[in-house]
Amino acid sequence: MEDFSIRPDLASRALGGGVVFANDEFFAVADHLVMPDPPTFSPRTFAHKGQVYDGWETRRRRSPGQDVAIVRLGVPGVIHGVDIDTSFFTGNYPPYASVEALAVDGYPSPAELQAADWSPILPKSPLDGDTRNLFPVRDSRRFTHVRLTIYPDGGVARLRVHGDVVPDPALLPAVFDVAALTSGGHVTGCSNMFYGRPHQMLAPGLARHMGDGWETARRRTDGNEWAEIALAAPTAVEFVDLDTTHFKGNAPGSAALRGSLANGPWFDILPAVPLTPDTPHRFPVHPAGPVDRVRLDIYPDGGMARLRVIGRPDRTVLEEKFRRHVGTR
């Protein structure tokens, strides 16, 4: 079975996700569900409502029903699987959960979302406590929101919604970062990701720390490390950003970027250039033609905080990708 958890978490706060409604947050607020960092726990840490949990926890239900949280995805997309993480919830996790999804334009209110026509993507399913509960999803439609229902009550540390980003072309400018996760760029391969996965260098904003980027192990053999990224669409690339922020004693000595179109031969976008530690580098480029994938080579190893590939994409391809996942199963 495919490991869907290697795909971006569409609900992550790091991509702009947020909890827009929860019917009960007595012990711990639902905003924790979309935090990008793994949950933590400090035993015997009590506040005025009891043990402090890094997750969403509702009160003990004394009447029929269930508890609900609605999450706005940070980036709309096709969902390949959900991770209902009950880490550190042992005697207080929900025994069952279900997930529904919704595609809606604009910025609906919590009341409008509750009244909407939701599609089930995970039926009521049993959960285990203090673990990640992984469930594949088989629905090719594009969604903007998910609704987590727990039966009857309890605590969930994180809700991860892994999938492929499908942005609305009408909301994209003429020139943008076509490698960005939020634009539909995604990693297709890499040589090494010992300390940090390469998709992190495609995340929005500045890197928060050294762990918020791609970092390899120390290379002890000849050669170099690399990562390949599929772009949002075939693009005429105009600028490349190679950002080594936070990487001081472990930045690559140099890097190069090559491109390819329709699985054709690789050609230079940016020939090998020396890199400075802890520094954003920006390079105007003039490649021989459009590309739909790029390969970043770092020499010989090290860490990259962010990679930006800025250019003018083929709008026809963007629109076709969007139509392919709207309203179809």
TrEMBL record:
An annotated Gene Ontology molecular function: allantoicase activity
Gene3D superfamilies: Galactose-binding domain-like
Pfam family, any one: Allantoicase
Domain Allantoicase residue range list: 16-165, 184-313
InterPro entries, A to Z: Allantoicase (IPR005164), Allantoicase_dom (IPR015908), Galactose-bd-like_sf (IPR008979)
EC number(s) reported in the record: 3.5.3.4
Top-rank EC class of the record's enzyme: hydrolase
Keywords, in A-Z order: Hydrolase, Purine metabolism
Known catalytic reactions: allantoate + H2O = (S)-ureidoglycolate + urea
GO biological process: allantoin catabolic process; purine nucleobase metabolic process
Pathway: Nitrogen metabolism; (S)-allantoin degradation; (S)-ureidoglycolate from allantoate (aminidohydrolase route): step 1/1
Coiled coil: none
Family: Belongs to the allantoicase family.
PANTHER family noted in UniProt: ALLANTOICASE, INACTIVE ALLANTOICASE-RELATED
Name this polypeptide is given: Probable allantoicase
The organism of origin for this protein: Paractinoplanes ferrugineus
